[in-house]
Every structure is written in structure tokens, then in C-alpha cells.
Design goal:
About 95% of the residues lie in helices and about 0% in strands. By secondary structure, the chain is an all-alpha fold.
Length: about 170
């Protein structure tokens, strides 16, 4: 157990140290603690604001991405429609062109057919006339056969003219 004198001086020194600390030490320490608390609170506030900003930026980013996807889909849809229109127009043009070519070919074939038929008719007529001429020359070698032929032709022409006159 310490003496009363030692105890007295320990209490006096403790009081002086406590007074010095209270006068100069504690205000500095409390000021530093307060400053540190304010700094931490400001940092927390800034962190909250940064989180809010980040959340806002993420929402904005999501909105921009969504908008970009919509724009991409719209552009792809327009491109597909344009492609389909071009294909449809090309098909229609090809059909029209094919129809024109077929029509022209039909007209040309018909004209060539008519020309060929005309030439065949002409040749058949020429052959018929030649054959008839040869047959008639052979059969009409005398005057009597010539008169009979003329009379027969007159009779046939009268028979052909009679129905025409009735109409």
C-alpha cells in the first residue's frame, strides 16, 4: 500500500495531466475524431450518391441497349421488307418478261406457221395445176373430150351458183 504523501502527489500529477489533457489534448482528439466522423459521413454520402448515379447510369444503359435493339430490329425488318420487295418486283418483272417473250414467240410461230401453210398451199396448188394439166392433156387429146369437159364444168358451176343465189 502506498503512503498518503505518495498518493497525494499522484493525485496532484493526475489532476495536472488531466487538466493539461482536458485543455489541450482532448479538444484536439475530439476535433480529430469529429473531423474523421465528418469525413466518413461525407464519404458515405458520396458513396450513396455514386451508387444512385451508378444505378441511374445502369438504367440509362439498359434503356439505350433496349432502344438500340429496337432500332436494330426495325432496321432488320425494313431490310427484310426491302429484300422481299426487290425479290417480288424481280419475280414480277421476270414473269412479265417471260410472258412477253412467250407472246412474241407465239406470234412469230403463228406467222411462220401461216407462212409455211401458205407456201405449202401454193406448192400444192401448183402441183395440182401441173397434175391437172397433165391429166387434162392426156384425157383431152380429142375434140369430143374437150366439149364434154366444158359442158360438165358449166353444169357444175350452175349447180354451185344456185345455192348461193338462194341465200
Amino acid at each position: 500500500m502506498p503512503d498518503t504523501g505518495l498518493l497525494f502527489w499522484m493525485l496532484v500529477i493526475f489532476a495536472v495531466v488531466l487538466a493539461v489533457l482536458a485543455k489541450w489534448g482532448f479538444p484536439v482528439i475530439t476535433a480529430m475524431v469529429e473531423k474523421r466522423r465528418n469525413y466518413i459521413n461525407e464519404s458515405l454520402g458520396k458513396a450513396r450518391k455514386a451508387d444512385e448515379k451508378m444505378a441511374g447510369l445502369m438504367k440509362e444503359q439498359a434503356r439505350i441497349i433496349s432502344q438500340a435493339r429496337e432500332e436494330q430490329n426495325r432496321i432488320l425488318k425494313e431490310a427484310a421488307e426491302a429484300r422481299n420487295n426487290i425479290i417480288r418486283q424481280a419475280q414480277e418483272q421476270a414473269r412479265d418478261e417471260a410472258a412477253k417473250l412467250v407472246a412474241e414467240a407465239r406470234v412469230q410461230i403463228e406467222a411462220e406457221k401461216e407462212s409455211a401453210l401458205s407456201q405449202i398451199r401454193s406448192q400444192v396448188a401448183m402441183l395440182s395445176v401441173d397434175i391437172a394439166e397433165k391429166i387434162i392433156r392426156k384425157e383431152l387429146s380429142g375434140d369430143k373430150e374437150q366439149k364434154e369437159l366444158v359442158e360438165r364444168m358449166v353444169q357444175e358451176s350452175l349447180k354451185l351458183d344456185a345455192p348461193a343465189a338462194k341465200n
